[in-house]
Amino acid sequence: MFRKWLQENRIEDFNFCSPLFPKGSDREFWETKSNKKYIDEAIKYLNNEWPNIKASDYMAFHINGNRLRQENPHFLRRHALVSLLLGELCEYNGRFIPDITDGLFLICEETYWGLSAHYPAYFETYKLPDTKNCYIDLFAGETASTVALCYYLFYDELYDYCPDILTRIEYEMKRRILDPYLEHTDFWWMGYSGSVNNWNPWVLSNMLTAFLLMENNPATKYKAIRKMMYEINNIYTAYPDDGGCDEGANYWELSGGTLFEFIYQLYISSGKKLNLFNDKKIQKIMQYNYHTYIADGKYVNFADGTPHVTSSSIAALLYLYGKVADDLKMCELAKRLYKDYIAGNLDVEQNRASYTKRRIQMLILADKLSEKDNMTVIDKHIYPHLQVAYMRSGEWYCAAKGGHNSESHNHNDVGSFMLYYGAVPVLMDPGCGVYTANTFNEHRYEIWTMQSDWHNLPKINGVSQHEGFDFRADSFEMNDNIIRISFKNAYTADSGLTECTRKLLLKNNTLNISDNFVFEKDANTVYEHFIIKFEPEIDGNKAVFGDYVLECDKDVEISYDIKLFDGDSKLINSWNTDKLYRIIIKYDASKELENKITIRKV
Question: Where are the domains of the chain?
Answer without folding.
Answer: 2-369, 380-601
